[in-house]
Structure prediction request, 189 residues.
Amino acid sequence: MLEKQPGSLKGQFLLAMPGLKDPNFSGTVSIICEHNQQGAVGIVINRVHANLSGQDIFRELKIDYDPQASSIPIHIGGPVHIEEIFLLHGEPFEWASSLMITSWLAMSNTRDIVESVALKTGPKSFLFALGCAGWGPGQLEAEIKDNAWLTHPVLEEIVYDVPAEKMWDVTMRKIGIDPLLLSNTAGTA
Prediction:
């Protein structure tokens, strides 16, 4: 069963506001995979490594792979744990370790799922990333109050079907926001 604490942003997009200048997150779309009293973990989904592909990862791990899997794009999931693999994926969810994010999306990072993706026997829908993003207790909430981020429930058609370079703009428009009308300053009501 999928558990989510009250006030948790688990299963939400985190969209960088135009004023966010941190080079790790400027212009990014992330998915919050876990959010509780200890902090938050997310995966940036709209940045792709220019020089890495599935083939590089499979060779490094000495995993046999289907030739069609060699060109799988590798995303830059965030500035934390940059040498660890994280897969955001759809069904099936029966891997050695899968953290359910929504009813249709999980995050896994065990060798069994990497091997299945390499051999094209794993999930049909997935996103392969190196690294993740992390926030300490209360940090993400404070950044949202400071107008660094917008949040919205994750939309499946964005995760798997929108090219990385268009994802921020498409996501903003899909949730009803014209990016040209966004302000860099937070207001108070």
